[in-house]
Every structure is written in structure tokens, then in C-alpha cells.
Amino acid sequence: MANLRRNHEKAPAGAFMTKSGLFLALIGLLFAGFKFFGGNEGAEPGTRVVINAPEENDPTNPNHSSSELLLPTVKNGYVVNHDYYSLSYDEKNEQAEWVAYYISRKRLNNKRAKRKDWFEKDPLVRTGSATYKDYKGSGYDKGHLAPAADMAFSKQAMEDCFYMSNMSPQVHNFNGGIWRELEELSRDWGRANKKLYVVTGPIFKDNLGTIGRQNKVTVPGYYYKILVDLEGAEKKAIGFVMPNATSNKPVSAFVKTIDEIEEITGIDFFPELEDDLENELESKVNISKWTFNKNLYKVRTQKWNIR
Question: Helix-strand-coil percent breakdown of the chain, rounded to 5?
Fold first, then answer.
């Protein structure tokens, strides 16, 4: 949304150093600092952050390339960069306010890594992430924001997506019901559209209380997911907002424009897009460009919702 875009002045260029040895040493120290402190981790609220995405020709390669994964602005958190996804950690609510990554045909068709199912504190969250104990006995699922099945293309990606910073407390039949259906639909769309940028997270409205005696993790009232296709000849986007509850409604009943989700969350999701393209993608949704699987809906309402 253009009116949420933050404008930033470029930092003044530093003086050119003529002594090559000192210059190379300084570059080495800056690079080491970048790696140690997690790149954009620690960005102030309201700033724009960008992380490079892995090479598309090798879906398991976390090395930086010239292609960029555009990240949302930060509202209440600070950015933590993992190799295959980034998030903004909201310390007050002890979870990510957004998680951003991409799915692609090559990644989804790659040999699947074994699911880890070992939940750990995120070592890159400087304020300390939620823990496994916060969820134990709560009655809520440790719901992945970046799903394990989206990260199955790489052993490391699979392991990293089990950090507790990637978890949010979800009603069991929401996590295993309509949210699962949306995740499976997203992978179908990823295979059909070559590459999709994904941003997903909680909405702290009509919350369901907190869990965890020590960290008091907020149980969100709603969740959102946004998918954007910038690779095809015709660019497109779709968004969803769903209550954290069992639902028998079709997934299509929860479609929202990105503008609507930005209004609800106060987050600018794609500030780096060119203004005209950003306005076009965020102001409307053409559902006919996204195929909804009726069989998945049938399985969900007849099986997943009544487990």
C-alpha cells in the first residue's frame, strides 16, 4: 500500500580508503559483524528490510544471490534472518508478527527431507523466544507459520523451521483443518506458478488469552496469509484472513486484498515494489486466477474437522 510506504534517505558515502590492506581488513570486519548479528536483525520498527534469496537453480543452496526476497516493514518487532526464511519477532506477544519466504516449483518438487518434530528456542532471537514448555498442556497446537512441508526441500530448512519463533498457538482443528487446507492449496499454487512469495502471521485482535507461565504467549484471534506471483507474465496476488477456530466455510470465503490486510495489521507488506505494480497487486483479487481444490474442502469438513 503506497500510503504505508516508508521513505528513507540514503546514508552518505564514506571516504575512499587508499590503503588497500586496511580497506580489506575493514570489509572483513564488517562482513563478520553482519554474519554475527544476523544481517537485518535488530531493525527499528517501521523500517524496510531486504534479504537475498537462495539461488533458484539450486533449491537447497542458502547462499546469497542477485535475486531479492522483499520483506515487509516492521511494526512491533525486529527482524531475524534465517537462511530460508525471515521473520519479525514481536517480544510482547512472544511470536513472529510475520514470517516471509518463498515457495517454488523446484523447491516443492525436490527430494523431501525427513520431518524433524524437535522444537527449539531460536538462538537468533536476542530477547529470547518462546519455548516448548509454554505450549505444553495448553490445549493449543504449536502451529508453524512457515510450514514444514514448505521447507522439506532441505534438511537445514526443515530443521530451522522448527524454531519456536516460527510457532504460534493455534486451535487444534484450525491448525489441522482450514489452515492446513490453505497450506496445501498454497503448495499447489507454488507448483503451478513457478515461484510465489509468501508472508504469513497472526492478527492480535479478539485474542484467546495467553499460554505459558513464564513467557505468556498471546493466542491470536486471527491469522493471515499472502501469496504474490511476480514471475508470471501476468502478476497476481491473493490474501486470506481466518479466525483461529474450526471452520466449515470454504477457504475462498476468507479471501482479502493485501490492502485490507495492511489496514488490519498496520504492516506494509511489499514496500519495495514499484508503486504502480504495488497498487495493482494490493488493491484487488481476481479469484479466477487461483484454483481452489473442492476435494480438499470435502476432506477437511468430513475428516480433519472432526478428529
Answer: 35, 25, 45
Q: Which has the closest alpha carbon to 171: 197, 131, 198, 206?
A: 206
Cα–Cα distance measured from residue 149 to residue 4, given in angstroms and rounded to the nearest whole number: 32
What confidence tens digit (pLDDT) does each residue in 120-167 have? 999 999 999 999 999 999 999 999 999 999 999 999 999 999 999 999
Measured CA to CA, the distance from residue 287 to residue 6 in angstroms comes to 30
CATH of the domain at 168: 3.40.570.10
Kindly state whether residue 25 falls inside one of the protein's structural domains. Answer: no
Residue 230 lies in a domain: yes
44 phi and psi angles, rounded to 5 deg: -70, 150
Q: Is residue 19 part of a domain?
A: no
Q: What is the pTM of this model?
A: 0.82
Domain ranges, residue 174: 2-6+50-306
Strand extents, DSSP E, 230-275:
236-243, 255-256
Cβ–Cβ < 8 Å for 113, 157: yes
Single out the residue of 123, 53, 115, 54 nearest to residue 89, CA to CA: 123
Residue 12 is assigned to a structural domain of this protein: no
DSSP character string of 148-192:
GGGGTT-HHHHHHTTBGGGEEEE-HHIIIIIHHHHHHHHHHHHHH
Cell matching residue 298: 470435502
Residue 235 grid coordinates:
502478476
- Tell me how many domains the chain contains: 1
